[in-house]
Amino acid sequence: MVTRLPIKKRLGMNGHNYLADTNTFIFLLNEHPSVKPLLSASWYYSVITEIELKGKHKISPSELKVVTRLLEHCNKIPLTEDIEDITIKLRQQYKIKTPDAIIAATSISRNIPLLTFDKGFEVVKSLDIVLLEL
Predict the structure, then answer these.
(1) What pTM did the predictor assign?
(2) Packing angle, helices 47-54 and 22-29, rounded to 10
């Protein structure tokens, strides 16, 4: 299920849980207005997102510090056997990159909607997506 909500409707979404995709964190760090109304929700992230954010090529010490502080305010979900199994099934069923499959599998496994700007996740029919618009 894909949910596309205009910013005005997202303002009242307090108390929700979201698994934030890597691009959602990037847009948050760049102060994109579509993300700010969702800050009162509980944010979760996949270990893959942490690797992608902290493993950015030539990340500066100050950027790393900002990313680390941001992630400290969110809930990390480690890779589990259940997530691995779902990831394998997603890779078999869809043409999806491994990091995206792990993020999608994490969302499915924990039954937490995926918060993303990436329309590529729409191919995964079993994924509950909140698609943010640029």
Answers:
(1) 0.87
(2) 50
Higher confidence at residue 19 or residue 11? 19
- Give dist(CA 11, CA 62) in Å, integer: 31
Q: Yes or no: say if 117 and 134 are a contact pair by the CB < 8 Å rule.
A: yes
pLDDT, tens only, 52-78: 999 999 999 999 999 999 999 999 999
The residue type of 121 is F
Residue 87: alpha-carbon gap to chain centroid: 15
The enclosing H or E element of 66 equals helix 61-72
Angle between helices 98-110 and 47-54 (to 10 degrees): 140
| Per-residue pLDDT tens digits for 79-105 | 999 999 999 999 999 999 999 999 999
- Residue 106 has which token pair? 């994490």
Question: Among 3.40.50.1010, 1.25.40.20, 3.30.930.10, 3.40.720.10, what is the CATH number of 2-131?
Answer: 3.40.50.1010
